Amino acid sequence: MTDFGGAIRQSDEYRIAVLGIPYDAKSSYLRGAALGPKAIRAASTGLSTNEFTEKGVNLELDTVMTDLGDVDAEGDYERVSAGIQAALEPVLEKGAAPIILGGDHSVTYPVIKAVARKYADLDILHFDSHPDLYDELYGDPHSHACTFARIMEEGLARTLVQVGIRAASPPQRANARRFGIRLIEMKDISDGLELEFRNPLFISFDMDALDPAFAPGVSHHEAGGLSTRQVIDIIHRLRARIIGLDVVELNPTRDPVGITAAAAVKIVKETAAEIVLGEKR
User: Fold this and answer.
1) Are strands 182-185 and 201-206 parallel, antiparallel or unpaired?
2) CATH of segment(s) 16-280
């Protein structure tokens, strides 16, 4: 069952659109993230959770949230990238907010290419244990470890803030300085983090931003990360107009009891609620 607690409706008048991208060919270690969309949808069933969010938003009644299915992720990266952008075009033309279920983090680059055509001034909030700022990895400039280098070198975002970082190598730190990226590393995070963005905000959430205790279902276990509660609190305190979200790098093959998928559903629901509240301001 795919319903996000009963919130999903089939309607052409949607305000939020869920879209899966079952693609993990750019993973540098383990495959399995292509199974992420299916796992998140399965964990979202109303038999397990409901449509209400912590701030009282009812995702069934207070908005129209639909599921557009999966992008065709067969073929090479260029073909998949073009398909992602084509699938997002009608969503963005409608002024709706896309919620992307990945997939490895390489899918974020074509997502942002599409979003940036709609929002010329775009800010990005990126939750991750890694900055994903390599110029190339193992000779591949489109590895999931290179996504934000591609985004920033093409000027697709005005501001990039990265939260939860705890595995930044010297080349990635150099690119962070080069592009003026704000790294908020785990060693520097304290309770009560509040972030403000002037421009429309897209959130890119790599599930390994969470500590493996809260999200074991990822390919890269990096201890010392965020708790699920910390993430929700940061999202709740955002001062921004959120216009989209992706949740990537969930690897269900390492998530046998669904802890990580449940956390992903929670992140989707609470972010969707902030999108709804932002529309009412």
Assistant:
1) unpaired
2) 3.40.800.10
